[in-house]
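Moderator note: this is an archived Q&A kept for reference. The question asked for a predicted structure of one protein chain; the sequence and the answer are reproduced below.
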Amino acid sequence: MVLDEIDKIILNTLQENGKTTNSKLSKLVGISAPATLERVKRLETAGIITRFTVLVDPEQLGYLITGIVNLSLNLSQLTSVEDIKEKFAALEEVVECYQISGENDFILKVISKNIKTYAEFMNTKLTKIDGIRFIKSSFVIDKVKESRAFVFDLNEEYRTDINNC
């Protein structure tokens, strides 16, 4: 699907604030509210917009530890890589999981209330999964940038129009 400037503005705006009303979007992009709603639906149908969600600050809920876990597999101990992916995905402490290339096979982002609950997760859940050869944990000291947004570059004329809204 080819995106035009209006689609890009809609996507940038909704990524910044998913609660932006259709009325505000239509004023921003300069087309009618029904036409704007139709574009949003088209972006959803095409799979470009996959869902609308709420971002929660774990620290505000008492989850103070973010661990980054690098894992290597022992392939001779695995029945299948798909099985281990399912096991990682089922762990509620794991908020992100990536199969990667290079020295390690997976990276997990793990959220815990404190170091004790992190240790419990490691000792009672993660290390019990067959097929893991190597686990290395690192802890986030400071979030320099955390974003799920994919920002689309706009033509200069549209940047000027948006800034004037």
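Archived answer notes: The first helix runs from residue 5 to 16.
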